[in-house]
Fold:
Amino acid sequence: MKYIGVYDSGIGGLTVVKAIHKSLKNENIVFLADSKNMPYGCKSNNQIIEYSLNNMKILSEYDLKAAVIACNTSDSIAKNKITKKYNIPIIGVIDSTVKKAIKTTKNKKIGLIATSATCKSKAYEELINKYDNKIKVFTSPCPDLASLIESQNNKQNKQLLTQSLIKYIKPLVDKKIDTLILGCTHYHLLKNKIKKMYPDLMIVSSSACVVSQLKKTLKDNNLLSKSHGRNIYLTTKYSKVFNDNASKIIPNIKFKEK
Ligand code: DGL
Structure:
């Protein structure tokens, strides 16, 4: 049985897994959350590369036919290193998200919220402007957001989340953006909340965009699976809070520590 390997620093990647389940029902997925090293967004490029290569090493214990980097931070910094090392299709989240955002914007002003490392890499701006140099990209690094999403779902954290979202998104709205990229797979979990807070914005989530590219890659390489076997969920550090948060995305999910 062949698997699609998927990894992220944490539960954000599960929003990608969920989207894959929905449109590619026959595929077998092995997912790894590198909870031990989460959050990636405040780490150095060398650390992010090291974690990413280690994730691929763990996933490669399974028979992989393709891999999805379900983490914008890792995609923006480590994708080249992974592509050089592994001889299977490697699909990141950024390329398809950029294409969708370019199609979505009407006024050519796009906002990006992402981790500090993703913003610093300039991967989004460079790719957007490679395709269309008339588009203006305004970025807002969100250092605490992914960790807040992974913390306990209590009243205090909910309030902190709302305050953070205003702090990060309001300056972009002031620049008159019409499209907001959720450039971290964790932020997909806030999509409805952001939509309610800023109903005029068109939201492009990196978690939702990658599946069509994966489907095309599998099809082009004759790798589509004909029957479903099983999904495997791994984490580098198990905790109950983590598993509880994860089961809100994929019910009854059970993680094994690796
Ligand atoms: N979910 C990740 C991303 O898409 C990273 C979150 C983090 O570990 O900082 O960038």
